[in-house]
Amino acid sequence: xxxxxxxxxxxxxxxxxxxxxxxxxxxxxxxxxxxxxxxxxxxxxxxxxxxxxxxxxxxxxxxxxxxxxxxxxxxxxxxxxxxxxxxxxxxxxxxxxxxxxxxxxxxxxxxxxxxxxxxxxxxxxxxxxxxxxxxxxxxxxxxxxxxxxxxxxxxxxxxxxxxxxxxxxx
Length: 170
Hints:
This protein has a single domain, classed as Nucleoside Triphosphate Pyrophosphohydrolase (Alpha-Beta Complex). The protein has 3 helices and 9 strands. It has helices at residues 76-88, 143-151, 162-166, and strands at residues 7-11, 17-23, 34-42, 47-53, 63-64, 66-69, 97-105, 112-120, 135-142. The strands form 3 sheets. It has a 4-stranded mixed β-sheet, covered by helices on one side. Strands 5-4-9 form a 3-stranded antiparallel β-sheet, covered by helices on one side. Strand 7 and strand 8 form a beta hairpin.
């Protein structure tokens, strides 16, 4: 059985669609970007819903926030909602989320535009359904716990914008 590869729409440096596509894993030519989302979910207690990566993925057994690439036809919001539903089984209210940061990252192999979303949601942790290929655990954590995990190297430390997320606490 062949695995279906993700197809991404490509953008120019001004975030305009180029009409080109690329498959996940392909080298993207210079000056082209694909769209990526990171989705932070915060509850009324100022806790963040984080998930643990499965042992078979890169950054095995580390905690993170939900994230992924936009597929052909997705805009940023659609990608954020889809990734959360796929990875942890939660249906977010699109009215309770907003992009809080956007970064263009130039990389020799796979440049991307990253939108960082923050959603308000009070889902019960018991409602989380893991995508078995991606997620093996989930929990609500305060920012201090996340900082502690980063220090102990148990949290994926690629979130160089994390201060922007936490400065928006209620």
